[in-house]
Design brief:
alpha/beta, 4-stranded mixed β-sheet, two-stranded antiparallel sheet, transferase, membrane
């Protein structure tokens, strides 16, 4: 996963909470509430075009299904693998296979992008199908490959199915037509029949989950992005983890070869140190803990289907019904089980001081307000955290210098 800096084109704030409600319309959830977005519709459309065609972030997290008039912003650590599986299934079934079946359409497509609409080699690797002489499969074989992939997606929760990383498919740009950048007219996203989807989670639970998954797990590939972050935190707070001899290792070795086993290679830093580190270094822009209100340009896209991780089974079932997918066909009972309870995540915040909690309260300010969450919901002693305006001004000044807000 790459670390992306959120574009500073749109930095908008919100004044009122947005709640998800049920109503008898063609869209199961509708976001209600007034916001302080000052852009008029024409201005918003210009900004939207700029964001979609230039932002790496929105084209990493954003997905478009033309066949279902749907835009989805995938917030990391909010059951994204689950929903991306459904999205991929629909993209193959309702867009790629019909496209490949229509010879005139594929001919016209090839003249435009000089390539087929997906990466055959990548799909073959996922399915473990050998490529004969390294040649490109025919269109007939391509449809067969995609149908095999559909079966794999339908059964992805079964233990006997070869595991695959759904994110890697999109990192390799295997299905490029699903990216927002491929839209010829971005205004269609705001049409009345378009569903703009986002799933959210309590910001503090999402942050804790990112720490557990990305930092506190030692099974990650050595010297990967998050392994490097973990080691960097250990080195910064070395007095808490290393002996004097181990600390001196870093004085002698200014540059550490991958062949050398450094003292921090098996150290799991404390949650407190992780937060301190990402709140003071540019690594804060990582998509797994950056505010989703900014990652997904919430004010700009005005999502009209808002699902919550706290009620994800019900919300996801409503969305699948809206998309014409019956949940009984997917056996999705355990798709979003993390193995950690909400109480476990809450306990991780019990030892944080008020200054650090105020930093988090300010950093996730828009996420809290927009989606009706409170920082105090994750404090085990139920206390109210009062943060001084001076502290908020200081944090804003620091973030502006780093171009993080």
């Amino acid at each position: 996963h790459q670390v992306y800096q959120t574009s500073s084109t749109v930095q908008l704030s919100f004044s009122t909470n947005v709640r998800s409600i049920h109503q008898s319309s063609n869209i199961p959830f509708v976001a209600k509430g007034r916001n302080d977005c000052t852009n008029d519709s024409k201005s918003s459309l210009r900004i939207l075009s700029s964001v979609i065609y230039s932002s790496e972030t929105i084209n990493y997290l954003g997905f478009v299904l033309r066949s279902h008039s749907l835009f989805y912003c995938s917030v990391p650590k909010v059951a994204t693998r689950t929903f991306l599986t459904f999205l991929t299934y629909l993209n193959i079934r309702d867009e790629l296979i019909p496209l490949l079946t229509n010879k005139s359409t594929i001919s016209n497509l090839n003249s435009q992008i000089k390539a087929n609409p997906f990466d055959f080699n990548s799909i073959n690797q996922i399915l473990s199908y050998p490529m004969k002489n390294g040649s490109q499969p025919s269109i007939v074989n391509s449809i067969s490959i995609l149908k095999s992939f559909l079966s794999l997606l339908m059964d992805f929760n079964k233990k006997n199915v070869t595991d695959f990383d759904i994110w890697s498919i999109y990192q390799r740009k295997t299905f490029p037509l699903i990216r927002p950048q491929t839209l010829s007219n971005v205004s269609q996203i705001f049409s009345s029949n378009f569903t703009r989807v986002i799933f959210v989670r309590h910001p503090l639970e999402r942050l804790a989950s990112a720490y557990v998954d990305k930092i506190a797990t030692l099974t990650k590939e050595p010297f990967s992005l998050y392994d490097s972050i973990r080691r960097a935190i250990c080195r910064k707070y070395s007095s808490f983890y290393l002996t004097v001899v181990q600390h001196n290792f870093y004085r002698v070795h200014r540059r550490i070869s991958k062949k050398i086993e450094e003292p921090c290679h098996k150290v799991v830093p404390k949650f407190e140190h992780f937060i301190n580190y990402i709140m003071s270094d540019s690594v804060i822009s990582d998509v797994h803990w950056y505010p989703y209100s900014k990652l997904c340009y919430t004010c700009l896209f005005k999502y009209n289907f808002i699902g919550k991780h706290e009620t994800i089974e019900e919300d996801l079932e409503r969305l699948l019904t809206h998309l014409g997918l019956e949940s009984k066909d997917w056996k999705n009972v355990n798709y979003f089980r993390t193995g950690k309870t909400r109480q476990y995540y809450k306990s991780m915040y019990s030892n944080l001081n008020n200054q650090l909690l105020c930093t988090l309260k300010y950093f996730y300010k828009d996420d809290f307000k927009l989606f009706d969450y409170r920082l105090e919901d994750y404090l085990t002693d139920k206390k109210i955290i009062a943060c001084s305006p001076a502290r908020e001004r200081q944090l804003r000044k620091t973030r502006n210098k780093l171009n993080l807000f």
